[in-house]
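Throughout our pipeline, every protein is held as a single compact record rather than as scattered files. This encoding replaces a full spatial description with a residue-level series of whole-number codes. The remainder of this section carries one protein's record, kept here as part of the documentation.
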Amino acid sequence: NTNIDRDDIEKYIQLGDFAIDILIREQYQTSKYGKTFDIDENLTLPESIKENFYEIDRLLSTIKIVDPAVGSGAFPVGMMNEIVKARTALTPFFKEDEQNERTSYELKIQTIENCLYGVDIDSSAVDIAQLRCWLSLIVDELNMEHIRPLPNLDHKFMCGHSLLEEFEGNKLFDEKLLIQFPKDNFLLNHIEKQKKELYEELHKIHTGQKPNNGRIKEIQRELRLANNLTLWVLQATNSIFLKNYS
């Protein structure tokens, strides 16, 4: 719900904790030389990220991620590392006393306790996923003489069947969501036609049949807009169908 441009968010995720190195260098130059030197704007966080850092951090700390076939836990651990990296990049914008509490260990344990969930039909896979999370925490424990208790993950990673249609007589999926949308939707067909033309133009640019001239970025934005519009149309159509079938 934040008014942050998608490009700014993508840049923030791509830079990750590298942005911290740039900030530290900038602060060092200010303290030593009394001024900062020009830094490539492509290597700094967008202003919209700096202005909304607290809200972005809150959203990252409460996002919910579930792996319905958790296996060895590679996906949830990988997602945990990405969330921690993204939140770490925001740490310099917090007050000093808050920065001291935002260690890698604390951010990891918050992510595990609040964000990650997993299910697997194989109980041994669940055990491995839990172990993998614990090991990822231990490597960041600074006080090896007083290691804190590891979190209970029994309610985070559980043994179960993700493909069950019902449990104890209760339907686990609303079949109304499977209603087919009309294929003669004029607006959807128009959007799909535009997307096809954009993809064809993009292909010509990549294959050298057409010059770029900054057009690639424009095409990518137009495709994102088309995809968002498609979702909006589908949601609006879905609500109409649900009213008819309820």
Remarks:
- Residues 215-245 form the longest helix (31 residues).
